[in-house]
Amino acid sequence: MSQRLHEPDGNRLLAMLPRDEYESLRPHLKHVSFALGEVIYESGGQQSYIYFPTTAIISLLYMMENGSSAEMGVAGNEGLVGVALFMGGNTVPNRAVVQSAGDALKMKTKVLQDEFARGGMFQRLLLRYTQALMTQMSQTAVCNRLHTVEQQLCRWLLLSRDRLNTDELVMTQELIANMLGVRREGVTHAAGRLQENGLISYVRGHIHILDRRGLETAVCECYRVVKDEYDRLLA
Amino acid sequence: MSQRLHEPDGNRLLAMLPRDEYESLRPHLKHVSFALGEVIYESGGQQSYIYFPTTAIISLLYMMENGSSAEMGVAGNEGLVGVALFMGGNTVPNRAVVQSAGDALKMKTKVLQDEFARGGMFQRLLLRYTQALMTQMSQTAVCNRLHTVEQQLCRWLLLSRDRLNTDELVMTQELIANMLGVRREGVTHAAGRLQENGLISYVRGHIHILDRRGLETAVCECYRVVKDEYDRLLA
DNA sequence: GGTTGTCGGTGCGCTAACACACATATAGTG
DNA sequence: CACTATATGTGTGTTAGCGCACCGACAACC
Questions:
Q1: Hey, are the CB atoms on A141 and B141 less than 8 Å from each other?
Q2: SS3 state of residue B48
Q3: Fewest CB atoms within 10 Å of the CB: A209, A216, B116, B135?
Q4: How many CB atoms lie under 10 A from the CB of residue A53?
């Protein structure tokens, strides 16, 4: 891919654009930094920007009326946050929260929509990414139904690891529990077992992945299904 | 909507097209009938057609390696089966099964893709529908995580009812269990309670919805979230 | 350098859903 | 009409995960 000579600024989706399309978008991309826990958009709320994470990871959460929550998907440097802006609905009934602090590139909604309407590689990429995200969401549904907390924790750790450059995750068990939609104690239990088996170690909000291979053995098939789809659709 | 004077053949998505766009598609739409349990496409398999159900209901299921399964979404006369054909991925890692026997309109993949590429109302509608389907899938994830089998059975019954013209569902508890990803006995138990409360009655594969309002009281918020999004996006 | 808040560990009782085994009833078929 | 498939009901024991309560340990901050 000699087209990938341009500087993609760390977002792998943008890096797949042909050089000319990327250059025409570049002036409209602004850097932005996100802190852990920051709410990027609220359920049903209008978004002024679409975000292409570079080092940040963003969780898509549904907030129940009774206050509990569950993650339906996650986006990092492989994708974007704000599919509703080009899919035509403008809003979605969930919240986007920063799961791992870091940076992103933002683009005004209007610019995005104009570029999308041109129908070039940009549109094709965004749609393929959306399909990958759908696979992630639907596989999350399956996983929530059929698999144990421990398996799901492995999946979550691997999904996060794939979107970072480091084996060190800054994340308390309490927050992981909110993402997975389980009790904090459930995460403590599962994480304890993974630590016993030497797959991870953790202290006070810092999780270290020691044995990625081991995690891949402990995880359910859901992880691989989703990963393979991302690789296939965004190759 | 004076544009809806044309005969939409029972699919509500197609019915939303302007008359001229619909007329240009019409020659490419062929009737097809589906029997209960028929597999429309297999996980990872190529589809030659996109389907617009008129009276049939189609379930999207993930089949686990160990043989168990879970539903990730459902499509009826409000939508279509085969989003991957215009999203660019061509295949998806799940199976589509006929959940309620009936008819659909089919269109060749090539025609679909050409029409989609034109970017008119047809494209806009398909993308909005896809967003609605995403909401359904992600809400299924949440529901699988946080709600009881009885609540999910209510949701499932209401989703089915909304896609039919009748209060009579032809569906065994065994099949419902496969869809929901729970044991058959679990469905028996939940259905028994709904019957005790006078919400439904059933005998050997025939479920009768007696009190739709009552079901809406018994169901979790997930049903309404999804229904509202469908209404909003496909108004 | 003590206080306070955050993070993780643990124990106990409870419930929803599981797995398995088997009983019963009905519809359809020869 | 008898037979057999299929559909549903039920019982027993097990388990994963929940809710709650509380503890200890570390960290940050006056």
A1: yes
A2: coil
A3: A216
A4: 28
